[in-house]
Design brief:
Layout (H helix, E strand, L loop, with lengths): L6 H6 L2 H14 L6 H14 L3 E5 L2 H14 L8 E5 L4 H9 L3 E5 L10 H4 L7 E4 L11 H11 L2 E5 L7 E2 L2 E2 L6 E5 L13 E5 L2 H10 L4 E3 L2 E2 L10 H11 L2 H18 L21 E4 L3 H10 L27 H9 E4 L7 H12 L9
Parallel strand pairs: 2-3, 2-4, 4-5, 5-8
Antiparallel strand pairs: 1-9, 6-7, 8-9, 10-11, 12-13
Bound molecules: pyridoxal-5'-phosphate (PLP).
Length: about 375
């Protein structure tokens, strides 16, 4: 069986270094807000090319804390609107709601699957305060027009970079493409921990200081609370192993790109729509999404050929039971993606033979004719 994402295999590439880092942290006796965390924040800020990085407990918190900090800074108020792609993972939308803001869904572009800059402007209102582009599947959103719209309307741009560690846009890395960014180190992400973790990156000194306090009970100094904060920390053990894995991130992303290059070239089945990539450096292939009108049958066909695939995502956020406020809304581009999307295995632990097996099985999918 070719697993979609075999975390044991992915992490085994660095297991000796990771075990050493964890053992060192355990014996240090210091588990929260220490040297490893500081080192990771410095390393990750440098990697992204920005001034500040603040570790958080997970990616959802990273995004929510950015907006809570903007509220403390007087830049946003409860009930203000944040524009977010309708086809994102639900965490982007939940972060906006948890920060007391109102998510306004925007259709994606049908080719890139990222938020459509053309559609943003028509949904801006007096209450709009920010745009949250999501670098979905690992590909950077169309940042130049997004930043231009934001500048014209005095909006903040908050990147959801949870799927796109190391992806670039015009030579700059994610985390340094807007006013602030939220990252996730959930184990399956391109830079994955062995538990939960997240980070905020920004070049804005006041935002960095405010966010750091909010993530720590609203406090810079123990028992002195200046904001109504939350508790969201990247612990020392996760930071220690992320310090190891960050060194290999570019190499791992290149392995993903090499698999993607083969898929793009060698998958020739006319029933499949391959993702359109205009620049390989913009994509880190957290997910390799294909579209197929007979998605469910294709998934069964691949399963029968020993290939595990996933769907990102089966139900769009506006159709979720939890999101009744969007009931009745229609987002046809989003709905089509959710109906037809299938994610092929694409990760650094895959061998050439496995990649070939996936390509052969996809090309061998006969479609409906088989059933007649
Ligand atoms: C994973 C993910 C998140 C949330 O990260 P967690 O660490 O699981 O909280 C947010 N947005 C997107 C697009 C994600 O894929």
């Amino acid at each position: 069986m070719i697993r979609y994402c075999d975390l044991k295999k992915i992490n085994s590439a660095y297991i000796d270094e990771i075990n050493e880092a964890i053992a060192r942290t355990v014996s240090s006796g210091w588990y929260i807000h220490g040297d490893e965390g500081n080192r990771f924040e410095n390393n990750f800020a440098r990697y992204c090319g920005c001034r500040y990085c603040i570790g958080t407990g997970n990616g959802l918190d990273a995004l929510a804390i950015i907006m809570l900090a903007y509220r403390e800074m007087g830049i946003m108020e409860s009930g203000d609107e944040v524009i977010v792609p309708a086809n994102t993972f639900i965490a982007s939308i939940l972060a906006i709601i948890q920060a007391g803001m109102k998510p306004i869904l925007c259709e994606p572009d049908a080719i890139s699957y990222n938020i459509s800059p053309e559609k943003i402007e028509s949904i801006i209102t007096e209450r709009t305060r920010a745009i949250m582009p999501v670098h979905l599947y690992g590909q950077t959103a169309e940042m130049a027009p997004i930043l231009e719209i934001a500048r014209r309307h005095s909006l903040k741009v908050i990147e959801d970079a949870a799927q796109a560690h190391g992806a670039t846009y015009n030579g700059k890395r994610t985390g340094n493409l807007g006013d602030a960014a939220g990252f996730s180190f959930y184990p399956g992400k391109n830079l994955g921990a062995m538990g939960d973790g997240g980070a905020i990156t920004t070049n804005d000194t006041q935002l960095a200081e405010t966010a750091r306090a909010i993530a720590n009970y609203g406090s810079h100094k123990k028992y002195i609370n200046i904001y109504k904060g939350v508790n969201s920390r990247l612990d020392e053990i996760q930071a220690a192993l992320l310090n190891i894995k960050l060194q290999y991130l570019d190499k791992d992303n290149e392995k993903r790109r090499n698999i993607a290059r083969r898929y793009l070239k060698e998958i020739t089945n006319p029933l499949i729509i391959l993702p359109h990539i205009n620049c390989m450096e913009r994509h880190v292939f957290h997910i390799f999404p294909i579209l197929c009108k007979e998605r469910d049958t294709l998934q069964q066909h691949l399963e029968a050929n020993g290939i595990e695939t996933l769907v990102h995502y089966p139900i769009p956020p506006h159709k979720q039971e939890a999101m009744k406020e969007f009931a009745g809304a229609e987002y046809p581009v989003t709905e089509r993606i959710h109906r037809e999307e299938l994610s092929l295995p694409c990760n650094p632990a895959m061998s050439d033979e496995e990649t070939t097996a996936v390509i052969d099985a996809v090309n061998g999918f006969p479609g409906r004719e088989q059933k007649d």
